[in-house]
Amino acid sequence: MSGGGSPRERASIPAEFVDLLEGRALAHLATIRPDGTPHATPVWIDYQDGLLVVNAREGRVKTANMLARPAVAISIVDPGNPYRYLSIEGIVESIDEDRGLAHMDKLSRRYLGVDRYPWGVEGERRVLFRIRPTRVSADAGRVAIPTADAPAREAVVGHQQPKP
Predict the structure, then answer these.
(1) Which of 53, 59, 128, 131 is 20 to 30 A from 14, alpha carbon to alpha carbon?
(2) Could you give the CA distance from residue 45 to residue 82 in angstroms, rounded to a whole number?
(3) Each residue's pLDDT tens digit in the chain (164 positions)?
């Protein structure tokens, strides 16, 4: 399943995959370095009003990359089914330098179960990047996984496949 296209368009996240953006799955964010090579890093992700939200410390490579080059890609794999995933290409649509610390506390409650972000550094500044999806691909993870005990046509992740 995929949708979107042009960087000016807005693609939608399929409803059956929003749980990956609102749960505890880590996302992988790919940005573009000044020399054109990709930089990928795991991040906590948030989803607000159809936009993905990435919170990054000022001075990080990903922060500098997104400030200079707004095209990004994000992938999220379901921790319960590694063949179920969401892949998103997008554009940084807005930047917020005022609410980053409070947002990290919100993400800490979701990802860690604690009220305050535990790894903050005195005086650090954080930046919220709101990303508009332009292309979305997803896979429900219902694939046959062959094992020694189950031939490919019998082993299915996520549901039972009828035997022939």
Answers:
(1) 128
(2) 18
(3) 555 555 568 899 999 999 999 999 999 999 999 999 999 999 999 999 999 999 999 999 999 999 999 999 999 999 999 999 999 999 999 999 988 888 999 999 999 999 988 888 888 899 999 999 999 999 998 877 777 776 655 444 443 333 33
Return the closest-CA partner of residue 106 out of 48, 162, 39: 48
| CA separation for the pair 156, 162 (Å, rounded) | 10
Asked whether 111 and 117 are in contact (CB, 8 A), the reply is no
| Burial (Cβ within 10 Å: 0-12, 13-18, ≥19) of residue 116 | exposed
Q: Which CATH class is domain 8-140?
A: mainly beta
104, 101, 137, 108: which is closest to 24 by C-alpha?
A: 108
Q: Look up residue 13 and give its amino acid.
A: I
Residue type, 10: R
Nearest Cα to Cα of residue 25 among 71, 94, 84, 68: 84
